[in-house]
Design goal:
Layout lengths: L2 H20 L6 H16 L4 H14 L4 H17 L5 H14 L6 H14 L3 H14 L4 H15 L4 H11 L4 H14 L2 H14 L4 H13 L3 H14 L4 H13 L3 H14 L4 H13 L3 H14 L3 H16 L11
Helix pairs in contact: 1-2, 1-4, 2-3, 3-4, 4-5, 4-6, 5-6, 6-7, 7-8, 8-9, 8-10, 9-10, 10-11, 10-12, 11-12, 12-13, 12-14, 13-14, 14-15, 15-16, 16-17, 17-18
């Protein structure tokens, strides 16, 4: 479960709530104090989480039913748990209790259920968390964060067979919009459903051709399916749109190597290494490709560089073995596999 992503989403929800409070015609003292507390938290970041908690508690002592402060306090407790070295279960239990109290509020129920699901995932109660998400989605079918979190639950082991059908159903709920399709594609890619990811990324680029990160994701999914020429084309599109996207440059080099275009693969890995000279995986691949292309002098130099800079014992030993082999039999191509 991607807890960091959930925490960022929660923080965004908390900070956006300021706008809703300030938009009211009549602003109560509790609303004003809440807006000040959130503004301070936004400025200080996680360093101010304890002050934010104290501020929300102070507001609630004077206005126990102030819903934004109840949600704000729950958010702050969840963030404190997720970003602190100490993991005090009492923080999550308290946040869950606050959210349970709000789950019966018709206006706030979807939001409260979503956030309660986060507490329950952190408490290792995935079944209860998933039930909350299903209820939140039933109440608000276009609740994107709830759908994303539920999809992540499915792909991470909840029910992988249902992940792609749920993503398709979810995409339909947003009338095939490009942004949700990108998020669903990312979740399916992370969960290993390459075909489902391809479907989602193709939906994105059909609507938004200038989408370098979707082209990158498409390249990864196609490469995982062994469709290397198609993957190479997707990586090229990503690089056309964002030339400095190093991950796409690496992927293009690997896809070209798998497609048999050794010269093209070498050129892309050389370009990648110019930008990322300490990327051990790229150096490994470049040395292998130099050997395959019969450029043994360059292969020796690259293996030597990898041997000297790598902290990985296996990689260092492999580089040493290839270097010794080339020194003794300089005309014999080998090198191993591109990774």
């Amino acid at each position: 479960m991607t807890i960091m992503r959930m925490a960022r989403t929660l923080c965004m929800v908390l900070l956006l709530a300021v706008s809703a409070v300030n938009a009211r015609a009549q602003v109560s003292p509790a609303d004003q104090n809440y807006a000040q507390a959130v503004a301070a938290f936004k400025k200080e970041g996680f360093a101010g989480v304890d002050r934010a908690i104290a501020s929300f508690e102070r507001i609630l002592r004077g206005a126990p039913d102030h819903t934004p402060s109840q949600l704000g306090l729950a958010d702050a407790l969840i963030l404190k748990y997720e970003f602190s070295r100490k993991k005090d279960p009492a923080w999550m239990a308290r946040a869950e209790a606050l959210l349970t109290g709000l789950a019966n509020d018709k206006q706030r129920a979807p939001e409260a259920l979503f956030k309660r699901a986060v507490t329950r995932f952190n408490q290792n109660r995935p079944g209860a968390a998933a039930a909350d998400l299903r209820e939140a989605i039933a109440l608000r079918p276009q609740y994107l964060d709830a759908r994303l979190l539920y999809l992540q639950y499915l792909v991470s082991g909840g029910d992988k067979a249902q992940a792609r059908p749920f993503a398709q159903e979810s995409l339909a709920a947003f009338s095939g919009a490009a942004a949700p399709a990108k998020y669903f594609g990312d979740a399916l890619l992370q969960g290993g459903d390459w075909e489902g990811a391809v479907e989602m990324y193709r939906a994105v680029v059909a609507q938004e051709p200038v989408a370098p990160f979707s082209w990158l994701g498409l390249g990864k999914a196609l490469a995982a399916l062994g469709k290397h020429p198609e993957a190479a084309e997707a990586y090229r599109r990503a690089l056309e749109q964002k030339p400095g996207l190093d991950e796409a440059r690496f992927g293009l080099g690997a896809a070209l190597a798998e497609s048999g275009d050794i010269g093209g693969a070498i050129a892309n890995f050389e370009e990648h290494v110019k930008r990322q000279p300490d990327d051990a995986a790229a150096l490994n691949n470049l040395a292998v490709l130099y050997e395959r292309g019969g450029q043994n002098t360059k292969a020796k130099i690259t293996w030597l560089k990898l041997k000297q800079m790598s902290d990985n014992k296996d990689r260092k030993e492999r580089a040493d073995a290839r270097l010794r082999s080339l020194l003794s039999e300089p005309a014999q191509p080998n090198g191993g596999d591109v990774k």
